[in-house]
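Limitations
The structure tokens in this dataset are predictions for the assembled complex, not deposited experimental models. Users should treat interface geometry with appropriate caution, especially where small molecules or nucleic acid strands are included. An illustrative entry is reproduced here so readers can see what is and is not provided.
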Amino acid sequence: MNYLPLLSTIITFVFAAAVLARWRHKKPRHLLLWGIGLIFFGLGTLSEVILSVTFSPWVLKLWYLTGAMLTAAWLGQGTIYLLVRKRGLADALMVALGLVSVLAVILVALAPVTPAAAAYNTSLPASEQYKDILVRNGLITLLTILLNIYGTIALVGGALYSAYLFWRKSILFNRMLGNLLIAAGALMPAMAGSFVKAGLVDWLYASEFLGVVLMYAGFMLATATQPVKSQQPASISPGD
Amino acid sequence: MTENKSKRFAASTWTRLLVPFVLVLLALGLLVTLAIVILSVLGLTPAV
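Predicted assembly:
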């Protein structure tokens, strides 16, 4: 068994629980979507744990669907809800993401598995073997790329934009630093996933672990309570 | 207004210089990631 995905899974589900516990108070949509995105992340790393013990085509499909297709886009959609002030635009993007996600589930569920599955090696990462096993048609590949580009730009770009605003205004140091950590953490698995898709160096497991640790630290820092001297509400609040 | 002032931080030299550097570095990382995705779509990477 590979212990790095196991650690990533535990941290991710604890992180998701913290986000969803915070969402329960005022029910802001961005926290719900981040929570869902983190559950996808955790299902992806949990699939890696299972695939390091035994092979199942359905677990491989779950790994591809959650890890390669849905996680970044749903996390990014949370950031869209946080930063895009035009609610209609955010809702329209949410509807589009929902439809594309349903299509992705159907396509991956129906994707054939090749006879190479019989030779699956549990001691090697799934990311090194899935290309020979899971048949991905052109539409699956296209959706994977679009979902990842959308999610990565929204999540990493949104966190960088928020950090820049706090830095420029010299306010809320904890949120500035928290957003930098979130951007760095989100970038790691996104970059590693791109490397895997491109057939370059495979450091996916390490990037997932470091990425979720940095994002969790960034979230805790950005949402930490600061001493308040006044009862006036803050004017901007990326990082809530 | 009052709270924003209370939550202001005095930017040290490190903060003034290091934060923009990190921002640029991460933005470049984002661009590299997107570039790799596009190159892989165009078949210009070792991917099968």
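Some entries come with short summary sentences. For this one: The two ends of chain A are 37 Å apart (CA to CA).
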